[in-house]
Amino acid sequence: MVSTLPVSLEDIRAAAHRIAGRVICTPMVQSFSLGELAGVPVHLKLEHHQTTGSFKLRGATNAMLSLSPAERSRGVVAASTGNHGRALAYAAKAEGAVATICMSRLVPENKILEIRRLGADVRIVGVSQDEAQQEVDRLVREEGLVMVPPFDSPDVVAGQGTLGLEIIDTVPEATTVLVPLSGGGLAAGVAAAVKGISPTIKVIGLTMEKGAAMKASLDAGLPVQVEEMPSLADSLGGGIGLDNRVTFAMCRELLDEVILLTEAEIAAGMRHAYACERQIVEGAGAVGIAAVLAGKIRGRGPIVAILSGANVDMEQHRQVINGTQPLYGEEGP
Hints:
Blueprint lengths: L8 H11 L8 E3 L1 H7 L3 E4 L10 H11 L2 H6 L1 E4 L3 H12 L4 E5 L5 H9 L3 E4 L4 H15 L2 E2 L6 H17 L5 E5 L4 H13 L4 E7 L4 H8 L26 H8 L2 E5 L1 H15 L9 H7 L9 E4 L7 H9 L11
Parallel strand pairs: 2-10, 3-4, 3-6, 4-5, 7-8, 7-10, 8-9
Antiparallel strand pairs: 1-2
InterPro entries: Ectoine_EutB, Ser/Thr_Dehydratase, Ser/Thr_deHydtase_PyrdxlP-BS, TrpB-like_PALP, TrpB-like_PALP_sf
Keywords: Lyase, Pyridoxal phosphate
Organism: Rhizobium aouanii
């Protein structure tokens, strides 16, 4: 089944060899507090400890290393909600290339500043990922830059899938993997990796209730547009592209379930990560914890939850922890 999809287990293993030494093999820890709640062992994959603060460095690095020297010399460009932009800026700098990152005005300022610090040319365009993508398309067409998509690329998906290989290496008995779901690059890659090795493993995509483009597209049976809305899980915002070539088909084939989380549940996940696990994670990185806390994960264990990113504005994080952060479209916690 997996071998007929755009990215295979062999592609992911090749990516792991390619990016070895350029990304961190992140820790896996057992959460006894969540295990007591779930009634089965729960492990946390601490991918927010990655060099650029999120899993995105895996895909960006694999994509950069898959380009020819001539392509790298033209410069690379991408649309991003923040974490892919930071990862691509870092990976491009490491290879002596110039990165241009296009983002909407919904991207938090802390992420924009870090991308600029890494030397990338930042373009702020519109109020949606789709509008940022239009600027990317223009730069490719008019200035000859090479696009490195944030998710809908076999090279990017294969890079993200290396995280799945690490999960199976460290918790080979895992029966359920909880994956943050946005454009589907991480979910598709991880699912292809873990199911390629252990076909019976269950992979669940987790996203916010409002503006969940992949969930809406899976429900519709084809890629659709959704309105982008502010969320604590801002990294999960953005569309999947109406001409999606890779991740929609892979998520449709490989995900066993998609679960939606409220803003209050995401905030609770962030608070639990800090208070009980001693981890600072952004909203998107807390959705696995949030789903367990909300009682939305049922079945056998062990469960592995991916903590995907730590690039949160620290003032926002403080407010979430203290319960003073206004929740988008909801009453406070």
